[in-house]
Amino acid sequence: MSKFGKKKKGMPAVNTAALPDIVFMLLFFFMVTTTMRETDLRLENPRLPNATEVKKLEHKSLVSTIYVGKAKEAKYGDSYNRIQLNDKIATADDVPAFIINERSKVSEAEVPFMTTSIKADKKSNVGTIIDIRLKLRDVNALKISYSASKGNE
Amino acid sequence: MARRENPEINAGSMADIAFLLLIFFLVTTTMNVDSGVSKKLSEKPPPDYVPPIIKEKNIFEVNINRNNELLVEGERMEIKDIKDAAIAFIDNGGGEGKVEDGVSTGPCDYCKGEKSPTSSDHPNKAVISVQSDRGTEYDTYLRVQNELIKAYSELRNRLSKERYGIPFAELEESYKDDRTNTELKKKVEDIKKSYPEIISDAEPTSSN
Fold first, then answer.
1. Cβ pair B44, A140 in contact under 8 A
2. Which of B131, B142, B201, B205 has the highest number of chain A CBs within 10 A, making it the mutation to test binding with A?
3. C-alpha distances in angstroms, B179 versus A16, A62, B183, B185?
4. How far is CA A140 from the centre of its chain?
5. Residues of chain A found within 8 Å of residue B25, distances taken between Cβ atoms
6. Which residues pair with B129 in a beta bridge?
7. Does A32 touch chain B (CB under 8 A)?
8. Chain A residues touching residue B42 (CB < 8 angstroms)
């Protein structure tokens, strides 16, 4: 009788007390190594060119990013020369307003250290980049960084 | 009195909560470290600005056409060769340096170039001019810029090793860690001044 009685109890529950610890560990890893995504990309993720002489961008809050690439939506055509500012597709003429808006977010003293990072697709044309650059020069945003991934050749 | 054992607290949902947080972070954050080739644009010239006349031999002309082909000083070249050509040009040291605040820098005594009279006079006079077409691919453009910057860093590294025994990259790194160190600052500025990075972008051509 007693034999049968024991069997009824079934398997003891697996101890999952360590599971939260493991997940928390993963969570902390992600919290530390990643940064918040600021904008929704309306472009296809630009394939950055490779360069060896890259410098890390410091002071994330002083960096404003301009994306150049192919738009996700078909109505913008399939060239790789679309410009995205903030959350929408724009033209080079909107760049000064964008920079001035970015400037208003930081204190006066930090304005000279602001950097504009241009994230452009490999297939973009130099003409688009130059248009942006001329506009940047108009508003005296002289520090720029051509975003590139570090690679050897 | 019989001691009752404490009932275990049910922590089964803890994992769920942690997972929820984890997934939130996975979705809202990005991992990429932003890095890029940094450049400083020149200021907008005043309307009546007359560009200074630069001797032909002090200009290293790089042309990139819309088919991503390179023309360096009138000759076709591959991207991999442009660095050595640029080094030879910058490091030539064939004449007197420019006059700064009334003080002439004199000939380049640290240059190891050929001292050819047809190439640049002094690193502080040597200008690299990159002209590209509007239709040039960005990838090619950036690779050329990268090679040119590489030429400068190679020269700076060499000089820094000679003068201070460590590569320039390390020198600059240690200065970044210790901004108040005036001795390091002097060293960094000395090297930077010896090989100033003068890469200018000419107005692009448009062939369409």
1. yes
2. B142
3. 50, 19, 10, 8
4. 24
5. 27, 30-31, 34
6. B61, B200
7. no
8. 137, 142
Taking CA atoms, what residue in A is nearest to B21?
A27
* Cα distance between residue A136 and residue A112, in whole Å: 13
In whole angstroms, give the CA distance from residue B124 to residue B141. Answer: 24
pLDDT one-digit tens code per residue, B94-150: 777 776 666 666 777 777 777 777 777 888 888 888 888 888 888 888 888 888 888
What ipTM is given for this predicted complex?
A: 0.73
Distance of CA B199 to the CA centre of its chain: 9
Alpha carbon distances (Å) from A128 to A29, A107, B136, B179: 38, 30, 10, 37
Using alpha carbons, select from B134, B131, B141, B140 the residue that is nearest to residue B207. B134
What predicted TM-score, i.e. pTM, was given to this entire model?
Answer: 0.76
CA distances from B187 to A53, A89, B10, B126 (A): 21, 45, 63, 22
List B residues 33-62 in contact with A (Cβ-Cβ < 8 A).
Answer: 33-44
How wide is the angle at C-alpha B61 spanned by C-alphas B114 and B188, nearest 5°? 65
Q: What is the pLDDT of residue A5?
A: 55
> What type of residue is A146?
Y
Under a CB-based contact definition with an 8 Å cutoff, are residues A72 and A44 in contact?
yes
How far does the CA of residue B27 sit from the closest CA of chain A (Å)? 9
Interchain CB distance below 8 Å, B29 and A35? yes
